[in-house]
Amino acid sequence: MSGQGRTGDGRGRLGSMLSGLAVAVGCVLFLGGFAWGAVVYKPYTVPTGSMTPTVNAGDRVLAQRIDGSEVRRGDVVVFTDPVWGDMPMVKRVVGIGGDRIACCGKGGRLTVNGKPIDEPYLHTKGLASAENFTAEVPKGQLFLLGDERSASLDSRVHLDDAGQGSVPRDAVEARVDAIAWPMNGMVERPDAFASLPGGVSTPGPLRLQLAAVVVGVVLILGGAAYGPIAARASRAPRNKGGKVPAGAH
Fold first, then answer.
1. pLDDT value at position 2?
2. Residues 6+ apart with CB under 8 A from 22
3. What is the pLDDT of residues 58-72, one digit of tens each?
4. Are strands 133-136 and 172-181 parallel, antiparallel or unpaired?
């Protein structure tokens, strides 16, 4: 009998130890996921509807802090440029240094270096721009358009400025990765730009950070629940019918 008691007690201690370990690891993952996210991402509230339907006015987005050298065609970026009003703006990059941007080509599409670009993210179908234009993007610059082309004040408005409407790469503060509120999910990279030199950017670590937070919550709740479950199990009758085992007296 004494051997069985030691075995049961040992299992209880092991369970308590594993429970505590689960809670500890869960706390590390939960807090670490949030801390990692705070370092990598910055929240922004989009002030206008120029990026509808990808991002609507008033949406709360999570934008990954990046260097301007990391920007690729198709990225939705947050940038600040004195010529554009010296306040954070959100637009889509359609051209980088050395590109020739034109509209409208065959089927009313935007062209980059003569290649027609399919833009499924546009708010209105048809012409990619109501006004025809061409621009040569200087080295180290970015050409930006809104997804709501009929209402967006973007590089087309600044074609007569130095740089033909482009902004410096170092004006970029962050790249929009997801819409946090309402929870519309990740902002996808357009396939049309993937075949151009340099390709498209890869998503940031947001999914991994969220996974760490979720796993942390599960471990914390699971570890915390072990105590009450184990206590209830220890009070349950050991034999069917609730009879006391022989020799217990």
1. 44
2. 219, 220, 222, 223, 226
3. 999 999 999 999 999
4. unpaired
